[in-house]
Amino acid sequence: MEKRSKENPWKLKTPPGTSDYEMYMDEKDGREIIVCVVGKTILHYDARCIQDLHQMLLEFGDWMPLGSKDEKAESVEGTVEHWGRSPENPIGGWYGLKKGFKGRFGMYVPPLMEALGLAEVEHNKRNNRMRAL
Q1: Is residue 5 part of a domain?
Q2: Has this prediction a pTM greater than 0.90?
Q3: Which of 1, 7, 23, 33 has minimal CB crowding within 10 Å?
Q4: How many domains does the chain have?
Q5: How many CA atoms, within 13 angstroms, populate the side-chain half-sphere of residue 110?
Q6: Averaged over 75-104, what is the pLDDT?
Q7: Residue 103 is assigned to a structural domain of this protein
């Protein structure tokens, strides 16, 4: 997997194409993380989410709704967002690491998966889905 740095981040757009953001790999507390920069907001995701999400989507074998939600909002079961915070995923909980900014997994991680050639993501105004490649 290609690993981009702060000096050479992935330049991405949200699935609906309405917002630009950047992502890059870093390390925090001995753990590899993905740093997501959306304007002045910075989110962190456990880097294991890339391989774990890809594997889950391969096993799922079909399109899955993204279902992006903020950390405090309830996620909808059967969505990428729900899986990214579920006790049933490989790490047993949240891939989002920064308190208050753990959500939006279903908004920001899928375009990175697409950029890495691991998934196909829809780019409609609403209700986007993804599937593994």
Answers
A1: no
A2: yes
A3: 7
A4: 1
A5: 30
A6: 97
A7: yes
